[in-house]
Design brief:
Number of helices: 2
Order of helices and strands: EEEHH
Protein name: 4-hydroxybenzoate decarboxylase
Low-confidence stretches: none
Number of domains: 1
Mean pLDDT: 93
Organism: Streptomyces corchorusii (Streptomyces chibaensis)
Shape: extended
Helix content: 10-25%
Distance between the termini: 55 Å
Largest sheet: 3 strands, antiparallel
Strand order of the largest sheet: 1-2-3
Radius of gyration: 16 Å
Strand content: 15-25%
InterPro entries: VdcD-like
């Protein structure tokens, strides 16, 4: 079973598969939106190898500050 390397959530969505079948998939976590390709190293794809300082808990996600929206581009005058 695949879990999110960053927050250990169990709902993972396959976003894309490689043009060559079976080479890699792009996966995304349903809770923290972390996205990774299955061909990346273990420190990016496996919870036990993911750096502890970057791991998230449900509490940290719930208490995260809102990221401000990117303002619209200015048009040249």
């Amino acid at each position: 079973m695949t879990i999110c390397p960053r927050c250990a959530f169990e709902t993972i969505e396959k976003l894309y598969s490689s043009p060559v079948p079976g080479v890699w998939d792009v996966l995304q976590c349903g809770r923290c939106l972390y996205t990774w390709r299955t061909s990346e190293p273990a420190r990016r794809t496996q919870r036990d190898a993911y750096p502890e300082q970057f791991r998230l808990t449900p509490e940290a996600i719930a208490n995260a500050p809102e990221v401000p929206a990117v303002p619209p581009l200015r048009t040249s005058a």
